[in-house]
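Margin note: ligand = iron/sulfur cluster.
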Amino acid sequence: MTKESSKTDLKRSKNKATKKASKHSINNPAEKKQSLKNSSRVPSPPELPESIAQKEPSVTKAWWKNGISFQCQGSGKCCTSHGEFGFVYLTPKDRIRMARHLGMTPKAFEKNHCTRTNGFSHLIEDPKNPDCRFLVKKQCSIYEARPTQCRTWPFWPDTLTPKAWKRDVVEFCPGVNKGAKISAQQIKEQLDEQKASEDALDQEARNFILGK
Ligand code: SF4
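Resulting structure:
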């Protein structure tokens, strides 16, 4: 017997068994009653909310499904402009939160700290100093109010592919494989937050360019 035919046979007999069982339970009220009786003796457990990791196939199949150890080592490396991750992009919510933290109006915050490239809002960079303007002695001076992309690093859609993870995170960030394990569910939450913020950035940039 080939593997394929044994698989087909198994499928067929499973289908038959299912049909038989359902037919039997519909047409046999005595048995149905008994089964209800049995089920009332053993109360079914309360339905527990499924974790994101359990119900999301994108998580259960992800290479990070068992979590990743990560703990910021305070190197400040991710707060220094480098190549394609140069800008610190800001969503409208980021700007409001940061302005409030600094005791400024959003308008004043934008005027003093923000600029736009292709419609995208980001922190102003100093061409002579690649450090983020809020980096002070390798520490974020607005840590509690830091932008979304700083909070979700390194769990970004762009970095969570095996290749990009190795190239852009493992070889660059000293926090990888340090500290406690970040669960798949926590990673998914960070990823979702980052995705939502990227959507907000796209939307705002589009509106800006269209003059809306
Ligand atoms: S805002 Fe803070 S966490 Fe983000 S890049 Fe600047 S110094 Fe780093």
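Confidence is low (pLDDT under 50) at residues 1-50.
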